[in-house]
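A favour, since you know our structure tokens better than I do. Would you make up a two-line entry for one protein for me to read? Write everything out right here, beneath this request.
=====
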Amino acid sequence: MRIVLGVTGGIAAYKSALLLRLMTEAGHRVDVVPTPAALNFVGRATWEALSGRPVRTETFEAVESVNHVRLGREADLVVVAPATADSLARAAAGLAPDLVGNVLLTATCPVLMVPAMHTEMWLHPATVANVATLRSRGVSVLDPDSGRLTGADTGPGRFPEPERIWAQAQQLVAASGSRASRPRAQSEAAPLTGRTVVVTAGGTREALDPVRYLGNRSSGKQGVAVAEAALAAGATVTFIGGAMSVEPPAGADVVRVESTQELHEAVLRHAAGADALVMAAAVADFRPAEYAEAKIKKAQDGTNPVIRLERTPDILADTVAARTAGEPMPGVIVGFGAETGDATTSVLEFGAAKLARKGCEMLVVNQVGRDKVFGQDTTEVTMLFADGREPVAAAGDKADVGVAIVTELAGLLDRPARLDRMDR
């Protein structure tokens, strides 16, 4: 894989040398493009020694090969790390005062920018707006860590560990599939280009007292995989995440929630006007009927507390009902059915009943349990459809299954257009 590593002028540039080593040790060809300011922190000799390749910093170097265009065109992945507040602003404005800016304007591959700056800069409205602009264009912007910064400062803005950046970069390339290995033709549109997709993921937590909650085993991996596949397919993605053991997808507009009620409100708010909704979150069916303001103590007489439960809102059914009532809900709604089956009814029979009951266009059904699906990297699902088409099975790692789900989603979104063409 051909990687361009852009390095801008922040003190975290020294950590990018470690990132470069991870890339080269994995067997990839890496062209390092530092800005002139970055060379104040790490010199050209270091980058050339670690990459084994000549380092260019100026637009007018290697002009015989049109280097300022060639680098971006030939890259399979572009990573800018660290990305300063200034470089984010320049990229959002489409400026190219240096070689890094030219690479960003010519790249047709996945792009990951890794901000690192003081907390005030990261939280400034201008930076917030610039990051939102970049993400809306399909650029993946990794949220910085929170921790010790330069000097005695502490807060969000810390450069993530190189291992986390490299893992995120590899996920981004994997989610883009074969498209990451070649420039996309000008006339070749990704199947979800121009579409907006809302994806929910992770588990919900229902507070019992200030310390305890009711929850489930969801890791959020499958929802993240679906969101990454949708991004790779060209969609603008809003990702609503509950409790998860994995990072949210780079490149999505991320909304974090905790309870089912918060998820309910976020879905109805963000799904309005979207083309599709994928409800991959593991939503709690019940919550404590009463919330204890103080921690529930063990009774001295040994008696057990009684916790009364009540049902949580049915987000999937409520979204379909809102659409039926004329609200601007998505035309394609995908639900998930995590089932266990019993002595008389199979997992798919439970799934078919749920599909009919909920009124969504597609239901992704899988069998769950302590050692199945939750937290695992592989899964098996069957996709059921309200229009009566044959079920579609998919199995493998969750990234592959995410691609299969998005493929069927794209087909559902395209169906009215295909029927219209057939009528003609």
Notes: The two ends are 45 Å apart (CA to CA). The chain has two domains: 2-181, 196-423.
